[in-house]
């Protein structure tokens, strides 16, 4: 059940009672929502987004457009750059995190 490959340096050991509670939670989750439990086991849970290199490109493009707006003293171009930066930042922060790294489901 528990991932035996967890890094010993970065993980806190669980007591016997905590392991039992975790196994009970895993079992209950698999009974309540089998599809969710399967996603958690596979490490696929998390929000889906366009994140990745494109969100970083969007953020950098926003910075460039904002700087261009300041250079040409255009409020509209500056606002567009700010919105692009905000969208890129949102996509980066909303990116799916690897659940394999923190997964207790196995």
Summarize this structure as a short list of keywords or feature phrases.
disordered C terminus, disordered N terminus, 5 helices, 106 residues, mainly alpha
Outline the structure in words.
The radius of gyration is 21 Å and the shape is elongated. By secondary structure, it is an all-alpha fold. It has five helices and no strands. The protein has helices at about 15-30, 35-40, 55-70, 75-95, 100. It starts with 15 loop residues before the first helix and ends with a helix.
Largest sheet: none
Poorly predicted regions are 1-7, 99-106
Rg, nearest Å: 21 Å
Number of helices: 5
In terms of quaternary structure, what is this?
A: single chain
How many strand segments? 0
End-to-end Cα distance, whole Å, is: 5 Å
Q: How would you sum up the global shape? A: elongated
* Average pLDDT level: 77
**Helix/strand order:** HHHHH
Short overview:
This protein is mainly α and 106 residues long. It has helices at 16-32, 34-42, 53-71, 75-93, 99-102. It is elongated, with a radius of gyration of 21 Å.
Secondary-structure topology with pairs:
Layout: H1 16-32, H2 34-42, H3 53-71, H4 75-93, H5 99-102
């Amino acid at each position: 059940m528990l991932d035996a490959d967890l890094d010993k340096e970065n993980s806190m050991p669980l007591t016997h009672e905590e392991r039992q509670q975790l196994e009970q939670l895993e079992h209950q989750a698999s009974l309540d929502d089998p599809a969710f439990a399967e996603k958690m086991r596979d490490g696929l849970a998390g929000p889906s987004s366009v994140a990745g290199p494109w969100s970083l490109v969007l953020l950098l493009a926003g910075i460039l457009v904002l700087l261009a707006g300041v250079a040409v003293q255009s409020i509209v171009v500056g606002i567009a750059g700010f919105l692009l930066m905000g969208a890129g930042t949102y996509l980066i922060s909303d990116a799916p995190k690897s659940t394999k790294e923190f997964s207790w489901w196995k």
